[in-house]
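tool_call: predict_structure(chain=1)
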Amino acid sequence: MRSTSTPRKNRRINLISLITVALLVVAPLYLLAVTVAIRSNLFDFDKGALDANDTKALWAFIGSGIAAAVTLTGLLVTANHNRQVERRLGLDTAVKGIALTHRDDGSYAQKAVLAGALSTLVHLYHPVIAMRMLSATWREDAADTASAIWIIDEVLEDGTPESQIEAARLFYQHADQLCYASPGQYEFPAILEKKWPAKLPWDARLALLTGLPKFLTSKPKQWWTDGHHWICPLLEAVIKDDNDKSLKAFAHDMLGRLLSDVEPSDAAHRLGNKKRTFREMKKTIDDYTPKAGDRFTDAETQGLLARIQDWMEGKTL
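tool_result:
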């Protein structure tokens, strides 16, 4: 995990560097040695004993091989040393980052300091530690909502699979706390305003998707000054882009409920740089029919769909 080892990207870069060196340095040396050996007829075993030229060619071949082996060994030793140094520095940084989140008396630091410490952990490739800290501090109201959502968004964009699952679950747990008192003012992960992140782990996608009805129904329909249909293109993207039939079915059923109060028209909402009209989204619903076995049957997800239905009908939740 990134919290205790070299970041995945850095490990990939180190591996690419070694392969590049092997191709650009070691391979040419071996090629040169083999060329010399062939041109000197070193492999002609019918010639009898080696003469002076053959001996020189043999020593050139052996020398090239030794030089290549020494070069590659040095590179491997250096790369391993660098990884150990990065691990040690990463651990020291994580410990210092955690120390910033508390005062001397054991209480949490001010929200601005805490947000900065957690952001630093994310940017220094410790997303798992950042998510664990955020989970505890947010639950105890020591983290502000805007910073928490920003950190969650950063991890969803570029975290480890483990940290992305934790980030999505944090979104789900706090989904009904993301709206402010002023109508139309809320916090929301930027990644979900651009696309449906279909490449995230399944557990993360499930948490994000099931968090949407909690988020949307946390305020009455009239609270949403730009209309409550703005989230519909995201649900349509789940139907179109996700490869899990259960997630697609849940998005389909939720989208159908949300669009039940509008007629097909060219009125549109945006997801990223794409506009989707009510006509297009209703067609998506009509064209995709989940099979009976695709739908979730647990009480929680069924309760979320029922919550959306009651919310659409204006019932008090």
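agent: Strands lie at 268-271, 274-277. Proceeding to next step.
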